[in-house]
Structure formats: structure tokens, C-alpha cells
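Regression test attached.
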Amino acid sequence: MSSELAAFRATLAQAIGADHVLAAVESTAPYAVDGVCPPLVLRPGTQDEVALVVTACAAAGVALVPWGGGTSISVGNPPQRLDAVLSLERLDRVVEFDADNLCITVEAGLTLARLQALVAEKQEVLPLDPPNADRVTLGGLVAANLSGPSRLLHGTARDWVLGLRVVLPNGEQVRCGGRVIKNVTGYDMNKLFIRSFGTLGIITEVTLKLLPMPEARASVLGLFPALAAATSVLESVQASFLLPEAMDLLDPTAAGLLLPTLGLASPTGHLLATAFSGSLATVDRQVRDLEALVAGQGGRVLTLRDGASTQAWQAITNVLGSVPPDLLRVQIQVAVPIGRTAGMLASISARAAEQGLSAAVTAHAASGLLRAALLPAPGLPADSALEALAAATLALRDEAVALAGSLTVQAGVPAFKARVDAWGQPGSGFATMRRIKDAFDPHGLCSPGRFLGGI
Amino acid sequence: MTHQAFVQSLRQIVGAANVLDSDVHLQLYQYDAYLEERRPDAVVFVHSTEEVSRVVKVCHDFGVPFVPRGGGTNLSGGTIPFKGGVVLEMIRMNRLLEVDVPNLRARVQPGMFNLELGNALAPLGYQYLPDPASQKAATLGGNVAENSGGPHCFKYGVTTNHVMGLTVVLSDGEIVTVGGEAPDQPGYDLTGVFVGSEGTFGVCTEVVVRIVRQAEGVKTMLAIYDSIERGSETVSAIVAAGMVPATLEMMDQLVIQAVEKSLSCGLPLDCATVLIIEVDGLKDDLEAQTEAIERLCLAHGAREVRVAKNDAERALLWAGRRGAFGAVARLTPSYLVCDGTVPRTALPEVLRKVAEVGEKYDLQIPNVFHAGDGNLHPLILFDWRDAEQKERVMKAGMEILALCVQLGGTISGEHGVGLEKMDAMRLVLSEADIRSQLKVKQAFDPSDLANPGKIFPAPLEVAHVQ
Ligand SMILES: Cc1cc2nc3c(=O)[nH]c(=O)nc-3n(C[C@H](O)[C@H](O)[C@H](O)COP(=O)(O)OP(=O)(O)OC[C@H]3O[C@@H](n4cnc5c(N)ncnc54)[C@H](O)[C@@H]3O)c2cc1C
């Protein structure tokens, strides 16, 4: 170890305690980013300690990747440099829960599931429901702009974050927003950090707006032999007054993974899952209307209420996690205009089939967002498998871009990422993004190279 | 550089008739709905993104600042050309370019009035939700730049929650398109950052907004109170009961009296305050929601609750609310609108303290506001010809903002900082916060030509020189 490095580690140990500066391979290995094990893992225990760590790293020119629950760490290109992982896991305190004002402030390392359990005690809920709630941290949720099925009714992090505290790459601590629900005091800095994937600083605290817990929840699942029938129901709902909280569409593969959990045996087909929440009167009415629509299109109906409904959505949200493991597995997210979602679902299956891949596809069908797991045919040599995965992904990206949408790689082995950029070509506005990055992180120390266009 | 050469270059782009630089014309563009004035050097009517880009490029080449102007209804001096230069008159870019029902989007030019968009969508059964009370005269570009709110924002969120994409001309003339019809575009959320940037990042020339189906039903009610405290307590009680009404608006006695004098909406003149509460959504539970709210209001001291029986009655209630600023404007030659925001439960306390500020400075301060959002609008009445009075007004205004901050709130909920609240920024932001915001400004507008001299307070003097 060079004397400089030794001095740096001593500074860190002083700042956060030697126990929280991990350097042994067996303790740093779980924090590998795109297959690269970081030389150091730093685990500050407070927001001020994060600032100390970042300041020390800035002074030493150490490149960091922030780490929340690790559920989205696979998103993005491999880091250009990785000198240390900064783990927020010890920042898991509730700073203030102001139930009367439907507002909560927490440290960035608290998990979504723990937050939900806490606010549920006061009959409140944060209506953001990405997969892996037990591991997703609030900081990670914000940085990666994670969303789930209920984005249909409730939107995404940008609609629920009231305030943030961030440690900038130079170690300075700043506040964005506040804890009131309307705030135009200067620029809307929250938006800058939401979806910035750790490239502009370290989010250390999040203030969120909450909703009163709805009186009732129910889901209507419709299983359709043909995609067209499911799409037709979807369109009828969109044209109606109904206000579903979520409408997810699963292709037969994804649906097949779920059916045992839901107690729906074969036959297979496309699954359209719709959730309603609100007063009992409105939920009942919407369930009735939707059951009629599903039956009208020859679908099989399964209606679930309360606990059973919640469980079903957990399974639906996490369905790609139950795809059989494969070393070369690729996961993509495709965004298109709302009306193109069902068509894109079909395209994903088709492009995958053309390349001899198997695919499980799930869509937030009325929000324009799809996710798919792509797997190579068993027994294919790795090189041909990677070729096929890349070809399908790039073809789908072209299709999405032609619809003014995008395709991002959510997970893939480094050899795959070497073939396919995680984000695609930067478009209009990129020069401004670059200037923002350079202004906040002039030395490229925060997640360098992981984001769009090499940012 | 001569003024003549500059104006000549502008005329070559937009035609002679679309550049104004006579004294009379410039005078018309030296003020907005705030209290300060500054004359521009030229006014340019623009008609397309291309034209804006070329005009801005000329400004850039000549080093002349520019200020986009929509309806001029902003209340913080946002359109005052503080450092002179060009006012870009956006009002002719007022077309609805596309309504895309399957994708639930509309593409609009920024000079279109908010209400016009609403009127165009209504026959199709759709709506654009943010609805500033000024919607008749405020443009979508202005709404975007101020991140405007409105009565229905308690349930539905403010402008930023409904703007999905923008076309923007930056200060060097570059045309940038961000966001759009598909969600979650890779890269930084420039759309989200631009909304609320008060014309200081560049000129918005096209907006992609989210449209939603109109609600199946709506019920509007008026709760009448003899105590303003009880009225504001009710606001929190309704939310605590788990209800999310579409609106929770409040007007106090002075405002009610002013409204009645100019509009005759049938509001009781002798009450202390009224709440306008609206619930909307599926028909099935609107009756039950209305009854539950009525019970809560009565339990919290309302002397009467009236439910609008038809569209005409409903429209009358809203005419009163939307006309409130205008009606108050008839009471005195001027007023200063404060825009502080507090956590909802602090409303009774902040209202009491605002009244104390009024007494302290011997000023009348009627109040009309978005109670559900905790966003108050004390209107400090005065006569601008009286310099001493104006000074008291400014002090009182600043004290009210400081109060809001002390109670956990902030200095502006929806009207923006502009020229008005620059000096209040340090009540909320640290020097590091300000520095970080200025980094974003520099990234969008490195030459500082887009609406310069706004939002940020002057740098602090070096505290002690060694
Ligand atoms: C009676 C009354 C009631 C009001 N009620 C509300 C309310 O309920 N809620 C609320 O939030 N506000 C309200 N306001 C304030 C005001 O109406 C809003 O701020 C509105 O959005 C301003 O729109 P405008 O077109 O008048 O913009 P302007 O006043 O012309 O401009 C406002 C700012 O936007 C910038 N700008 C304008 N167009 C563009 C563009 N195309 N590109 C970039 N920047 C641009 C300007 O430079 C300026 O900084 C009210 C005002 C009045 C007078």
C-alpha cells in the first residue's frame, strides 16, 4: 500500500471508524459493480460523516459509486473508475414523521418496506411500489427514479419527493426543496437529483409526501388467449371514467410464472391485472365494470380483495425476479408513448423469438413502460448467446427510438454491456447535461462513465 | 454596437412591424402584475421556434439580455427587463398543435392561455389539470416558467406534475427538445429542472402536457364560518379524516366583501371566512363524501354548509374565488401579494400571526388562499403613491415570509421569486444551496442573458477583511 493511500485510509478511519472502512476482499466482494470489486467500501453512519468521506475522497481524487440497497446497481455502463463504494446502509433513521401533514423525512439508506410499515401505523402510504421493496432504499429509489404499477394513478418519485439533502461531489451539503407541498423558492433542484444515478452527488436524506391509506383495494385479473382482447379491455378502460391505480400487462411467459401463485392453472395467455383503490363504493363499482369488460372479451376473470390483492401485486411486481436464473440474463426497460405499450410488448416477444431467445415481458400498460428479461437458448456458446442478446436489444432500441421512446439496459454481464450501451445515443439537450455534470463534478468522481453519453 | 444596428437585425428576422421600440410601446412593457418597473429597449413579437432561435442568437451576438413574456400576470416581477434588453412577446405563439388522446398528451405553444387549452380539451372529454386562478390571462409558457399552482393542485399537483416535455431555445440560440410523449427519458430530467426556472434558463417554445379524462362527477360546497381559526382547523381535519378533496380554498371577510361588491356571488357578508371545497371523481361516493365533509365542517364550527345544486351555482362560487384578486384590487390603488407556504397544520397559527403583523404595521391584510396546500396569499393593501406606506408594506411582507419559514414552510409556493423575493432567499437557502442553484443556471445559460438579475440575492459582502 502506498503511503498516500495509507494516509487516506487513516483519514477515513478517523472520520467514520475503522470498522466501517472495508478493504478485505471477502467484505468488499458483495459490493462489486459490473464485475469489478471495489478496493474500498466506506460505510458512514451519519449525513455529516458522508460529507467527511466525500470531502476526503475529493481531496484524494478517489472515484466513488454510491450504494443503497444494490437493487439498481446493475443499471448503467461499467464505471470508468471505481476506487470506492460508498454504502448508505447505516443511514437508516427516520428524521421526522409528520403524520398530520402527510409528510416524512428519512435518511437515504432506509428501505422502502420499513418506511411503508411505519407510515401504515398512521393509516398512510407512500404510493411508490417498485420491485424489491424490502431492499430498495429511499435514496436509491430517488436516484434511479424507480417506479411500479401504481405509477398509473400516482406517478413517480418526481411527484412525491418534497425535499432532498445531498452531499455534492466537492463535499458540500445542500438542501433541495423542503417539506411543504408547494415550493418554488428558486429552482426545482429535486428534479436534478431524481434520476441522476449517483452522478451528481450523494443523496443523504429524502422528504416525501404521503397519502391517506385508501379504504379498500381490489384487483381484477383477466387472462386472455389473445393479446388483442387484452388490449381492447385496456382501451375501453382508458376511454371510461374508471380510475384504476394500476394496469399491468404480462406476456404468456411472465403470466405463466405467476399463475401458480395466483391459483390460476393453465390455460396460458396474456394477463391484464388491474388494481383499484379508494372508497368501498368506488372500488366495488369499478370491479363490476371491469369484470364485465373482461368477460365481454372472452377473458377469464379472477377478482382479489384486500390482502389477497396486495399479495398478487407483490408477485406481479417482482415477476421478473422469478425468471429462472441464467448467467447471461439481460434485463431491459423500454419506454414508449402510452398508446404504443401493447404493440411494444408484442415486438419484444417477436424480436426475442427471432434471435432464438426466450423472453418474459411485463408492462405498465397504461403508462408506456415495459420491462423484459431476455435469456439465451440453453446450451448456446456464450459468444453466440451474447450476439443474439445484443442483436435483439439493439433492434428493440431502434424501434423504441423510432417511437420517440427509449430502451435502457437494467442488467447484463460486462461482456453484454461492452456490446450495448446501457442508455443509447444521447439526444437533444445533452450538451446542457454535460455542462451540469461538469459544474457539479468537475473531476468526474461520482459514478464516472456510468450514465448517458459517458457522464 | 448601436441600438439601431441591433434593432435592424431583429427586424430582418421578424419583419418591421414585429419589433417595437417607440417610447409609447416600450412603456407598455415596463411593468407586470408586481410593483416594480423597468423599460425594455425593444419588444419583439415571435411566431415560431425557429424565429425565437434566430432572435435570441442576435441577442447573444450583441450581448443583449432577453426576457420572455407571456400574459404578464406574474406577481413577482418575472417579466420586468431588469437589465434592459429585449422583451420577447410570446402571445402570438398560441396554437394547440396536437391533441393525442391515445397517448394522453397535448402539444401546445407557450403563448396559449391556460383556459383556452381547457376549453379546447373539454369537448373531447379531457382536461389539463393545473388551473391558476389567473387562467384566463396567464399563458402556458408563464405557467411552466413559474411552476404555477391553482385551486385544484391540492389533489392533482402543480404544473411540473403535468408537463412531460419541452422545446426550449437556449441563450445561444440552440434549440433543445427534452422529455416528450414517452416517459422516463434517459439522462437528467431537464424538463423538470426547467419548469419553475422563471425565464432564466431560456425560452420555452413548445410544451407537451399530460391530459386526463374529465371526472365523472363533481360536487362543490361552501362552508361558512364565524371564526377564521375554526375554518383553518377544518382544513386539517378533512385531510386527517383520510379525504383528498380536489380543492380546499379559503377566503376571509375582507376578500368576501370585496368579491361581493364587484361580482355578487351570494357570499355572506357577515362571516369571518368561507371554505370552498370540491370533491370529484367517480359518482358512486361523491354524495357520501359531501355529507362526510359537511358533518366535519359543522363539527368544527361552521355555521352553515351550502352545496352547489347545479353547474350555475358552482360556476358562481368559482367566479368569486377566481375574481378575488381583481376584486381586492378595487379596494386600494395597490396591494402586495405574499405567497408563503406552511405545513397545513400550521395554518391557524400563521393566520393569527399575519393578523398581528397587520396590526403592528397598521395595514389591512385580507387573505385568500389555497388552504389545502398550506399556501397563503395575504394581500397587503396600500397606496403606491405613499412612499412611507410602501416601506411599511415591504417590511410587513418580509416579516410574513419569515414567519412562514419559522413554521417549517417557505417563501414562495407558486408565484416565484423574481425580483420580489430575492432578498428573502437567504431565509431558506444556505450559501452552498445558492451556489448549487447557480451552477444549474450557468449550465443552461452560460452567458447570463436569459432574464438576468432575478431570483438570486446579491453575493454576501466579505464579512471581515483581514
Ligand atoms: C389575479 C391573479 C391570480 C393569480 N392566481 C394564481 C394562482 O392561482 N396560482 C399561481 O400559481 N399563480 C397565480 N397568479 C400568478 C400568475 O398568473 C402565474 O405566475 C402565471 O403562470 C403567469 O403566467 P403569464 O403568462 O402571465 O406569465 P408572465 O407573467 O408573462 O411571465 C412569468 C414568468 O415566466 C417567464 N416566461 C413567460 N413565458 C415564457 C416562455 N415561453 N419561456 C420561458 N419563460 C417564460 C417570464 O419571463 C417570467 O419570468 C395569479 C396572478 C393574478 C394576477
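Expected vs. actual: identical. The CA atoms of residues 449 and 455 of chain A lie 5 Å apart.
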